Amino acid sequence: MLNSLRTELLRSEVIWVRCATARPKLLNIGDSMISYWKNLHLNSETIGLVYGFLGVVGFSLTLPATRAAVIDLDPLIVGLGRGLVAAILAAFTLRITHQPLPSKQQLGSLLVVGLGVVLGFPVLSAWAMQQVPAAHGAVVLGVLPLATAIAGFLRAGDRPDFSFWIASIVGSTTVVIFGIITGAGQLQLADLALLGSVIAAAFGYAEGGRLAPILGGWQVISWALVIVAPFEVLPTIFLVLKQGLIASPIAWFGFAYVSVIRTKK
Predict the structure, then answer these.
(1) Among candidates 211, 255, 260, 214, which has minimal Cα distance to 76?
(2) Where does 129-193 show beta strands of DSSP type E?
């Protein structure tokens, strides 16, 4: 019995010594990684591409998540409610980071961003996702780059090169043909809603692009969420009282995704 106890004590001591000697190595590895990231200098274009890639990844799941949400929830609750949830997170973030208030001149532009990105796109796409599959909607949204480029040209004076226009027009034409073929020879009402969401998002993105160099990218969408939120409160309360909030976990997961990930991208 004593020998067994002594053996266990020796084994515990060996394990403790190994952990104690390994800890400095782990700390050194952690310090080296932190030092590496601190000394890694990325130019603004590379950082922009990284953010853009993350935004595309987040956007790619928007329609499937919306489709999951509207199976049990009213499309207007999804379209308006997601903005309210995101507005709360945005207001908290703006507060703790001590962001300055936008000027009176910037409020009008932020309202345009909000009407396009926070209201127009979510509400129209949520309604359309009740009518067509997410894959169909994703193809129709392929016209968004061209629409954004046109809006940027009209609002911000952007000048994409000729090859961009050719590629965008060819791609957008393909999307329209796809919508007609899958709609038995004509565009469905859901297709028109998706196109409307594209136009709303395009002008919202273009206006946000004008403000981003002044306010910052995430600050623009955050202020837009906060400014539009008061217009969403009463309709959302009315719809919740009328329709209720009984939904499956999958529907709530989809709603949470589009509220947090999509709007904050």
Answers:
(1) 255
(2) none
φ, ψ of residue 194 in degrees (nearest 5): -65, -40
Question: 99, 219 in Cβ contact below 8 A?
Answer: yes
The CA distance from 150 to 165, in Å, is 9
Helix (H, G, I), strand (E, B) or coil at 70: helix
pLDDT tens for the chain, 265 residues long, are: 545 545 554 454 444 444 544 444 444 454 555 455 455 566 666 776 777 777 777 777 888 888 899 989 999 999 999 999 999 999 999 999 999 999 888 998 899 999 999 999 889 988 888 887 776 777 677 777 778 777 877 776 667 777 777 877 787 777 767 766 765 455 678 878 888 888 898 889 888 888 888 888 889 999 999 999 999 999 999 999 988 888 899 999 999 998 888 655 5
What is the radius of gyration, based on Cα positions, of the chain?
Answer: 25
What are the Cα distances from residue 208, in Å, to 113, 115, 216?
Answer: 6, 11, 9
Q: Are 153 and 210 in contact (CB under 8 A)?
A: no
| Opening angle at CA 193, ends 192 and 196, nearest 5 | 85
Three-class secondary structure of residue 188 per DSSP: coil
Separation CA 120–CA 204 (nearest Å): 9
pTM: predicted TM-score of the whole model, two decimal places: 0.71
Distance separating alpha carbons of residues 245 and 243, to the nearest angstrom: 7
The backbone region for 157, taken as left when phi is positive above 0, alpha when psi lies in -120 to 50, beta otherwise, is left
DSSP state of 132: S
Using CA atoms, how far apart are residues 137 and 191, in angstroms rounded to an integer?
8
* CA–CA gap between residue 223 and residue 235 (Å, rounded): 20
Q: How many residues does the chain have?
A: 265
